[in-house]
Amino acid sequence: MGGKVYISKTLAATTVLMTFSAIIGIITMIAVYQLEVMSLPPTKPPEPTTTETIPTGPPPSMRLPGNVIPESYKVFLQPYLYTEISNVTNQTFLFTGNSTVQLRCMEKSKNIFLHSKDLVLKAIRLTDLDENVNLEVTHHVNESDSDSNFLEIRVENEVLRENGSYSLFTAFEGILHDDLEGFYRSEYEDQASGEKRFLAASQMEPTDARKVFPCFDEPAMKAYFEITIIHREASGSNTIIIDGESWLVTPFATTSKMSTYILAITVSDFTSQGLLVNTVMHVLIYFFCLKVWARPDAVDAKHTDYAATITVPILEYYEEEFGIKYPLNKLDEIALPDLGPGAMENWGLITYRESALLFVEGVSSETNKEWIATIIAHELAHQWFGNLVTMNWWNEIWLNEGFATYMAYKGVDKVEPSWNVKDLIVINEVQEALEVDALTTSHPLCSAEEDIQTPSDIAGLFDVITYSKGAAVLRMLSYYIGENQFKMGIRSYLNEFKYSNVVQKDLWRHLQQVTFALTTDHYVMKSWTQQVGYPVVTVNTNDGKVYQDPSIFPLIQQLETRPNEIFTINRGQLIDDAFNLARAKYVNVTLALDTTKYLKNDTEYIPWQSAVHNLDYFILMFDRSEVYGPMQAYLRKQVIPLYEYFENYTIHSEVPESHTAQFNQINAISVACANGFKNCTDMASSLFNRWRENDTYQPIHPNLKTTIYCNAIAAGGEDEWEFAWERFQNSTVATERDKLRYALSCTKQIWLLNRYLQYTLDPNKIRKMDAVSTIIYIARNVAGQALAWDFVRAQWNYFSQQYDGGIIALGELIDEVTLRFSTEYELQQLKQFQAEHGEDSLGSASRALEQAIERTEANIKWVKENKRTVLEWFRRESKTAY
């Protein structure tokens, strides 16, 4: 790695594979369009009709027919961020543009189908490039079907020739909404001037490139893109348009061959921190430019430093691991004030939420730091898995997300080896996947292609199964065939399919070539990727035979007597396995609870986190019943030794050195306070009140802020809530705002929770990207769960309109607000909600609602079967509680 750090004050109008110099001139989109019209070839006269039958109807499914494929695009876009456009009522944010796509006709055709959504088409022209003539066409946008988004170009008096070359020109207008989809607007407050500043950004995945320009918006329809952005000079970014205002034209170099969903565009006045990086591969030296973009005050305050520091070594590690150098000559990472997902892997221009890229020393926590490292590593892995090699269709999106999730742990381990994050994959991914995959309404990693057709179908796949089970299966496969063989197979896979598309059998074939552990028919892996669920195997260690008697579980006894003889990671896995087996009725529920008895003698994070995660289900099922009191007494008894182990750190607002110990300190405080340990609640309230008395002095360590804020607000009233709300409104640090936003949901005051729910409908109070997660936080509070469910039902049409089909899946909202459901009344509410809203209204939440119904039915049955047993167990085990 080489080069020196510098600060760039240039306009951040960046896109994939941007050139390093912009052509500056005064131009408008009208002028560009006039030049296009002047260069038109003559229109070809009609030819005699033919008797040959040529397909003319619409495609038989939601997929493009493939009769015409794109080869390259030239796209001009001009966003109007701050001006009032004439003849448009109540609208001040527009973009205009035109696109010329070069096409190859694969078979004789009368129609061209591509995608267009929410665009006003101003002009369409189809040119026969072989004969240099224009063809007479009509066009039709399918308005009646909200899922296909087809734009149909009909050729009059002519037939498109097989293997013929054509170009399709379209001119269009669109609105820069604040919906976080397609080409959208965002805003922030400039700290120096106090002015509101606007910017434009894009989020194309999964199916929103069609909202930016007419295109063939499917992952297999790869092409080359040449983008030109026409935008104002930064100095005039907040003024009303005047005659003679100058514009900049920023052209970008042609991209590599790629899918539409990883195209990216931003227009802002951001500044950057940059590095000129050289890497060595196969004795050759390669150079690329890295820039980390953010609000100017964030760059000046060095909030981008950590991201810039770790990006290069992670990228270099991946180059070595995959045997392929990073294929572009630049990489931009940009922290946006508003973004739907946590980050997006656009090729060469990765977009992030501010909380996923900016680390603020003394304000951001160790958890924030790990999150930033993990997200960066995830998105960098996508530069190979997803961008260089892309799944053929969305039904196999796990080939992107599973690999990126799995490789992220390796990438973070490379730059932060003391964190031991490779052990955390068990609790973060494996255990999460096991829980969801136990539902019959789960879905396989690889769904049938015909089952995934609409944008809602596609959005519904961005879930725990795709990310966590995908990563868990790849981890298992790596251990099964050997890590070296796995690496060899992956290198071969990436090399063969770079710049193209794959199906999962391509991966199996390359792995099978490097090991005898996989059969040529790929039978072993088909069961893991094409079926729902997972197997349960019990092994008798005396003779190596599989046995079915679930009462034989000697390792649980060893937890009580000799726990340190079992590796830490295995102690955590043992606890998790016991609870999963108990839910599946392979073992008694008391046996699972018995695995937590030894925890009073364990201070390690992984076993404690496994227990906290699994006992959370018991809390959800029983925190509204008579079981809750004895349960709290038992949990106090178990956690007090852990709380006291960290107490000296906590009272001095310090943290231990170990990464996982810092996480377990948070567990100790959270569990102790939540279960009524007075020393803990008094400590939280005292630290919070010290801050209230002097808000220029922060006595709470960044690691402990989330749990201290939450527990202090839970123990307090309106004054504590209003103070935190004011701090939230005034903070400019995204990670601090996230902590406060979560803490505000912890109050026990019903009226405050109701008001907070209403705030999620106002983007001036809660940003749109944070609205869904805020409702989820409120639903996790037992005082807010019913309020959140009633609110979601009452506002469903709003949420469906605002978020469905995008990367913010409504399925997560339904899933989270119904987690506590365990009564017949709640089950009937779910079924009524399902009956009231058809599949069109539910969209991407359809599967989540089915899972919620199944889970509620299982919860009702489980509570009925286990409530008495669990109550007696907690009463017995809590007798000696503090």
UniProtKB/TrEMBL annotation:
GO molecular function: metalloaminopeptidase activity; peptide binding; zinc ion binding
Aminopeptidase N-like N-terminal domain sequence ranges: 70-262
GO CC term, one of those recorded: plasma membrane
Cofactor: binding comment: Binds 1 zinc ion per subunit.
Keyword Transmembrane: yes
Cofactor (UniProt): Zn(2+)
Compartments reported by the entry: Membrane
Residues of the active site: 379
Main location: membrane
InterPro entries, per the entry: Aminopeptidase_N-like_N, Aminopeptidase_N-like_N_sf, ERAP1-like_C_dom, M1_APN-typ, Peptidase_M1, Peptidase_M1_aminopeptidases, Peptidase_M1_dom, Peptidase_M4/M1_CTD_sf
Keywords, in A-Z order: Aminopeptidase, Glycoprotein, Hydrolase, Membrane, Metal-binding, Metalloprotease, Protease, Signal-anchor, Transmembrane, Transmembrane helix, Zinc
UniProt-annotated site: Transition state stabilizer, residues: 467
Gene3D superfamilies: 1.25.50.20, Neutral Protease Domain 2, tricorn interacting facor f3 domain
Pfam family, one: ERAP1_C
Protein name: Aminopeptidase
Provenance organism: Denticeps clupeoides (denticle herring)
